[in-house]
Amino acid sequence: MCISVAFVDDHPILLDGLISVFSGKSDLEIVAKGENAVDALRIVEDHSPRVLVLDLSMPGDAVAAIELIARKYQGTRIIVFTANSSIETAIQVLNYGVAGYVLKGSRASDLHQAIRMVYDGETFISAGFATKVIMAMKTAEMRRREQAQQRLSLREEQIVRHLMRGSTNREIARCLDISEKTVKHYMSVLMQKLDARNRLEVVLAAQRLDVIPKVAGERERIN
User: Fold this and answer.
1) Which end of the chain is more exposed for a tag (fewer CB within 10 A), N or C?
2) Distance between alpha carbon 75 and the CA centroid of its chain, in Å?
3) 103: β partners
4) How far is residue 66's CA from residue 24's CA, in Å, rounded to a whole number?
């Protein structure tokens, strides 16, 4: 079964070259071509290609078109074929739903492989560039997790303080005038937020992330 593909690029010579190279592939069927963001939307609406290969630097708002296509036309997988090697741009469009990011200067075989892979539901990023993108995404995700972890509610802060004193669930419930069941609920929430498996790890994570300001002279004990 042939994969229906459309190409969008505002450089006529490059666009014609892509059409020439890939029209000879027995596993591909080129259904349309265009030269701007409006063309990209029209092509997806009219032809529903399984894979859309488009540049970022072309007339119109290519990023907005990508966001709309990825959200509204999920049957079309998007590959960005661009000279733009910005890590931030790559992460942005990947987060919008782009399945492939291929740098211009790559071999035709790389782009062909990208088309095959995204059609099969995988993600493709140009070799070498992929490592930089993945590391940047991991760093950003760790930063988001740490920021989310640090946002404890007032009640969660109170419970962590009691944990630091070595209080039991019953003692915490009595001091805060809540039920033990409620304390257990907050413990589950805290373990999830702080990526902890038990009471000790909750306290250690809270100290490491500095989510609870230490009180001068306070004795910290864990049973």
Assistant:
1) N
2) 19
3) 82
4) 27
- What pLDDT does 221 receive? 37
Contact 70, 98 (CB under 8 A): yes
Domains and CATH numbers, the chain: 3-140 (3.40.50.2300), 151-209 (1.10.10.10)
In sequence order, what are the residues at sequence separation of 6 or more whose Cβ sits closer than 8 angstroms to the Cβ of residue 19? 7, 30, 33
Cβ neighbors of 175 (< 8 A, separation 6 or more) are 162, 167
Over residues 81-101, the pLDDT tens digits come to 999 998 989 998 998 999 999
Q: Residue 139 has which token pair? A: 């760093």
Distance CA 100, CA 122 (A): 9
CA pair distance 171, 181, nearest whole angstrom: 13
